[in-house]
Design a protein that fits this description.
Helices cover about 25% and strands about 30% of the residues. The protein contains 19 helices and 38 strands. Bound molecules: flavin-adenine dinucleotide (FAD).
């Protein structure tokens, strides 16, 4: 065994072997893998081996498609048979809502370059004669889906890696991971110690234990999962071709052919966590759990109705095995703040659909410093300290039980709530707020009327919130709205070198004292890493604010790139709450509470100052995402209630509390982009229209060279805002934008602009098409609508109302 390696991968399941393979593929040869037993000895060996490219997150879909595209290569390169069956797959809809959802998905696949098809009941029966299609509306057919031999595939990755120089140590259990104090790690195994620069936790069912070796608590829970293998079925014995993989989305089962019988898998509602207090080290290697068939009765009943032949077919074998889930079902990939070169590749629920993408992403990150595109959906940095074990169990159970349910864009699932509340939560609740969740925190979406239940109906179309949001927007336009913005991310940079640190991470100009500036943050390759607001409170003290759910992500970046001697960086997002007040009455209302003049001459647009607001010591910033005159007031969380009370007491007659839905509508009318929609690591500042905020006169910020190149090259696609004609539902994201039948872009977000009475959206469109002002079409829920690119914001194009 080597005593030194550049990377030690812990875990020889499909994920660890894929990471090892991709490291060698990207040119790193001094890499090793430790496996405590034989390869596949965790959950990999007993997987059903199904794979598919479809995922609710487009970036994950892309990586799943990549995984599938790898299979023939690794089979050829390794010489290892992987039992590949590309059968195609049917995602079946038996409700109108599901059918709408699949049609919307199908349109999105055009953007992702996936060639899926919508098929009717007759075509479904032709492809899968076992299926009873009564009540079925149709299915989405994906020719890329299929199944494979899980052990063969894992060994194929391993074999390719070995051929490229990697070493694999079987029967070598990692016992400890100790920092050397010199920027490296000692990986202590039962066969000796390896000194290494990088450690990868790909320990699957034992990832939590390998996390604890460096005092890291991972929000991962293993769940029991069953599938049944049947005896031979006559129609399959005689059929010349295999049936496709079938996901009966409304029945919560999946089915594929296995030899001349079928494999039927079940996501039962009574999701059962396994070994929540830790996975025993002795578990594994061809070990399964006792089958619990009584838990499957309801799902099997549905399955037998959809596939009647199964009711008369013998069951050859029942498999019950555990595999891991994160709270949202996506993997945990990437680095961890404070643990230099300790990497995660775990919590992978669909290793045979996602393993290749996870391996590629992590290998890019380790070898090149960052992954190629936006992979936030599987970045370990998307979770925060609210993911306690109880939260992780509640959320993973919920995810498992709802695995095939429609994820509505306006639905926030109930498990693990409320985990965290702002200090004005009770007041908001009394005012009949309907809440969503952001980074574990309950956030107000809108306010129902007093005589209505505070419940929004999950839908792909306009919900019962529509009229209430309109009323909130009207109040903002005519009087003022008060919004709890405690969820915003807030970071304090202090110390003599605070400005130097910020000049390194922020690409924009730093504000003068008591001024505010919007600024992008870039990666070394010039990708967007943040759209932040820098508020300078003093020469050596800055408040930086951004999207609240990015706290772990941003703090990890700051720790890596901004932390240096002479600067302290504090995440004060929980310690400080905030109320935004916007609308023409906001100056008058706020000045009644501050008791001072807020006249434009004293407090101009983009000014920040510290003052007492009523009883609360506050930071008052004059800025507004709403497009109206507005202020954000931040106070220590204990003062938030008194701040809200005093603002409500001073309020003008039309002032009312509003929610984040109203803010989304207002910002779309101003064509203001937001993170994860218009802005992400997929885009560069010049694509996103943020180039004007970059201070190219400075040479000291990360990503400058790449951003310069980006400016000179002129991006082929640009962000644009547009209005959709005759819409009855709003665009939700990733709908294709077309000229004639040519896809020329895609939507990033959509919503109804109540002040302008238009369905609005933003999206990336081919620059030539924007410049030519061609007629565009967007397909929303299967309906093709004409749309018009806006050359200026739909509301108050000159921005005069913000500067009143
Ligand atoms: C019944 C069932 C059906 C499934 N069907 C499918 C399917 O159809 N399609 C699909 O994509 N996925 C499926 N899955 C999920 C799939 O099995 C997992 O996503 C995948 O196996 C995860 O792989 P992994 O490498 O992350 O973890 P694991 O397979 O658990 O591998 C982790 C490895 O790390 C080793 N290890 C742990 N700790 C140490 C240590 N300290 N030192 C050394 N080695 C260590 C373990 O021995 C193990 O071999 C199914 C799972 C189950 C249970």
């Amino acid at each position: 065994m080597k005593t030194h390696a550049q990377v030690v991968v812990i875990g020889g399941g499909v994920v660890g072997c894929s990471v090892l393979y991709h490291l060698t593929k990207l040119g790193w040869k001094d890499v090793v893998l430790c496996e405590r037993k034989e390869l596949t000895a965790g959950s990999s060996w007993h997987a059903a081996g199904g794979f598919h490219a479809l995922n609710s997150d487009p970036a994950v879909s892309r990586l799943q498609a990549y995984t599938i595209s790898l299979y023939r290569d690794i089979e050829r390169q390794s010489g290892q048979d992987i039992g590949l069956h590309v059968t195609g797959g049917l995602n079946v809809a038996a409700t109108q809502e599901r059918w709408d959802f699949l049609r919307a998905d199908w349109a999105r696949h055009r953007v992702l370059g996936l060639s899926t098809e919508l098929v009717g009941p007759q075509q479904i029966r032709d492809l899968c004669p076992l299926m009873e299609t009564s009540g079925v509306f149709g299915a989405l057919y994906d020719p890329m889906e299929g199944h494979l031999d899980p052990a063969g595939t894992t060994h194929a990755y391993a074999q390719c890696a070995r051929k490229a120089g990697a070493e694999i140590y079987r029967h070598t259990r990692v016992l400890e991971i100790v920092t050397t104090g010199r920027g490296a790690w000692h990986v202590v195994t039962d066969a000796g110690t390896i000194e290494t620069e990088h450690v990868v936790n790909a320990a699957g069912l034992w990832a939590r234990e390998v996390g604890l070796m460096v005092d890291l608590r991972l929000p991962i829970v293993a769940m029991e999962h069953h599938y049944l293998l049947t005896d031979e079925i006559e129609v399959l014995r005689t059929s010349p071709r295999e049936i496709p993989l079938v996901l009966d989305l409304d029945g919560e089962i999946y089915l594929r052919q296995e030899r001349k019988g079928v494999l039927l898998g079940v996501y039962e509602k009574s999701a059962t966590p396994w070994c929540v207090n830790g996975t025993p080290w002795e578990y594994g290697e061809n070990e399964l759990l006792p089958p619990q068939l009584d838990r499957l009765t309801e799902a099997l009943d549905k399955g037998f109705k959809r596939f009647p032949v199964l009711a008369e077919t013998g069951i050859r074998r029942v498999v019950n095995g555990p595999f891991t889930f994160s709270p949202d079902g996506n993997p945990l990939v990437g680095p961890v703040a404070g643990l230099r070169n300790y990497w995660l590749a775990c919590g992978v629920m669909a290793g045979f659909a996602q393993g290749g993408g996870v391996g590629l992403t992590l290998a890019q990150w380790i070898t090149r410093g960052e992954p190629d595109g936006d992979i936030y959906a599987m970045d370990a940095g998307r979770f925060g300290p609210y993911t306690t074990p109880a939260y992780a169990i509640a959320k993973t159970r919920e995810f498992y039980a709802r695995r095939f349910q429609i994820a509505y864009p306006n639905e926030y699932w109930p498990a693990g709530r409320p985990a965290k509340t702002s200090t004005v939560h009770a007041t908001l609740r009394t005012a009949n707020a309907v809440f969503g969740v952001s980074y574990g925190l309950e956030v107000p979406l809108y306010f129902a009327r007093a005589d209505e239940p505070a419940i929004e109906t999950p839908t792909l179309r306009r919900s019962n919130a529509f009229d209430r949001v309109r009323e909130e927007c009207e109040a903002v336009q005519s009087s003022a709205g008060l919004l709890d913005i405690s969820s915003f991310g807030k970071y304090l940079f202090t110390g003599p070198r605070a400005a130097v640190a910020l000049r390194r991470v922020l690409a924009g100009r730093l504000p003068a004292v008591e001024r505010i500036r919007l600024t992008p943050m870039l990666s070394a390759t010039g990708r967007l890493m943040g759209d932040l607001t820098a508020l300078r409170l003093a020469e050596d003290r800055f408040l930086v604010s951004g999207s609240g759910y990015l706290q772990t992500w941003h703090m990890r970046w700051f720790a890596e790139h901004a932390a240096r001697e002479g600067v302290e960086i504090w995440n004060i997002s929980d310690a400080y709450g905030g109320i935004a007040i916007f609308g023409p009455d906001s100056r008058q209302v706020l000045s009644r509470v501050t008791g001072t003049s807020l006249a434009d001459t004293d407090v101009p647009f983009m000014r920040v100052f510290e003052a007492d607001v009523g009883f609360a010591p506050a930071i008052v910033a004059r800025l507004s995402v709403s497009g109206e005159l507005g202020y954000e007031v931040y106070v220590p969380s204990g003062f938030l209630q008194t701040l809200l009370d005093s603002l409500l007491q001073a309020a003008s007659p039309g002032t009312r509390m509003v929610g984040l839905y109203a803010l989304n509508s207002l910002r779309l009318e101003k064509s203001f982009g937001i993170w994860s929609r218009e802005f992400s690591r997929d885009y560069t500042p010049h694509m996103a229209g943020l180039g004007r905020f970059i201070d190219f006169d400075r040479e000291d910020f990360i990503g400058r060279d790449a951003a310069l190149r980006d400016r000179e090259l002129k991006p082929a696609r640009r962000l644009a805002a547009f209005a959709i004609e005759g819409a009855t539902a709003e665009a939700a994201g990733y709908e294709p934008i077309e000229v004639d039948d040519r896809c020329v872009g895609f939507v990033t977000s959509g919503g109804f602009g109540h002040r302008v009475s238009k369905s609005l959206a933003m999206g990336y469109i081919d620059a030539a098409v924007i410049d030519a002002r061609s007629d565009l079409y967007v397909t929303v829920l299967g309906e093709r609508k004409r749309c018009q690119v806006l050359s200026a914001p739909a509301y108050d194009p000159t921005g005069s109302r913000m500067r009143l």
